What we know:
Layout: H1 2-18, H2 20-37, H3 44-56, H4 60-65, E1 70-75, H5 79-82, E2 93-97, E3 107-111, H6 120-127, E4 140-142, E5 161-165, E6 177-180, E7 185-188, H7 190-201, E8 211-217, H8 219-233, E9 240-246, H9 261-273, H10 281-284, H11 296-299, E10 307-310, H12 316-322
Parallel strand pairs: 3-5, 3-8, 8-9, 9-10
Antiparallel strand pairs: 1-2, 1-4, 2-5, 6-7
The chain binds 2-acetamido-2-deoxy-beta-D-glucopyranose (5 copies).
One 2-acetamido-2-deoxy-beta-D-glucopyranose binds next to loops.
Amino acid sequence: MFPIRSFIAFQSLFSQSEQEGEVQFSNRVSAVNYKKKKMNTTSYGFVLISWVLLLAFTPLGIYSETKKNLVKMTLVQHAVTQGAFCLDGSLPGYHLDRGYGSGVSNWLLQFEGGGWCNDIESCLERAKSRHGSTRYMSKWEYFNGILSNNASLNPDFHNWNRVKLRYCDGASFSGDSLYQNETVKLYFRGQRIWKAIILDLLPKGLNLADKALLSGCSAGGLATFLHCDNFTSFLPKNTTAKCMSDAGFFLDIRDISLQHTAREFFEQLILLQGTEQFLNENCTSSRYYPYQCFFPQYALPYVKAPYFILNSAYDVFQVRMCLPFSFL
Ligand SMILES: *[C@@H]1O[C@H](CO)[C@@H](O)[C@H](O)[C@H]1NC(C)=O
Ligand SMILES: *[C@@H]1O[C@H](CO)[C@@H](O)[C@H](O)[C@H]1NC(C)=O
Ligand SMILES: *[C@@H]1O[C@H](CO)[C@@H](O)[C@H](O)[C@H]1NC(C)=O
Ligand SMILES: *[C@@H]1O[C@H](CO)[C@@H](O)[C@H](O)[C@H]1NC(C)=O
Ligand SMILES: *[C@@H]1O[C@H](CO)[C@@H](O)[C@H](O)[C@H]1NC(C)=O
């Protein structure tokens, strides 16, 4: 069925942007290499040795070069008791870079993005990849963009506590169910993962946050709509908490062949993962199709916290979703 293909294409789009960290990483390596090449020949042997050492201790060696830019993954150990697992049963994880100075009490959380799966087959595929298992994920992440610690590149948030929530449930952290037969077991535990991560972060200072922002891109941007008010419910009353979606405002509209491609895709996802019970009840009770509340256009009016929405009018994925024929 063609609609599914467009979502797979979306995932590969994401593979590119998520590898951006690795690309910059190797750029840095060549930058170091380049500088050293400019030295005189007598120091060339030393340079070669240190270059070999640098490579041998990667990522440790690189980490000291780009201090604070590479952030280590924390696996949520207590997730076991909460049954909060990635699709394949691995522990969920996040990366935390501590705030400092005037940002020491402020928290920025960012949901990782990367498409979705909507049936057993596609979720089994994800479970064997970095989109569905922390086993296959990079354990070190390069923090850039809104997560950067560089004041000139990221003036507003560079010194906040910055957290990247790794995405491994395949449904924008929205579901809670389990698929099991004699040969296959798939955990659909996005809600539990979300809660397990928050409970891990609260004692690390999130419980005393001055300002807090829940953000995310793409599938992660969609996750912000589904968790914004739940996020603020964990924070003290005097925390200034807001939410922000980047390229996550997926529309419930017909495509050019007049099919409800997106609606059908997300309906399958919601049924598979048991997501409907977590949608805002005031929204679901107001709609003929309750699962439509998965879409920001219906969910947003019921969100209480202040929202900032960033979305291109010509969002590449949204345009493709409206032109499914281009994938035939
Ligand atoms: C921050 O980014 C600017 C602009 O790219 C760069 O010139 C500067 O060296 C960076 N600072 C640090 C500490 O990495
Ligand atoms: C278990 O489910 C998978 C995926 O739906 C299927 O391919 C497999 O045949 C099932 N195994 C059994 C023993 O039913
Ligand atoms: C927030 O979400 C978690 C995970 O689904 C749930 O257990 C909890 O009850 C929710 N809290 C509120 C106040 O809705
Ligand atoms: C919020 O209230 C707590 C307890 O009264 C206090 O310790 C904390 O400093 C307050 N935080 C802010 C941001 O006002
Ligand atoms: C639903 O609406 C009622 C009445 O406005 C409100 O009190 C309640 O908090 C809302 N529930 C949710 C989950 O937003």
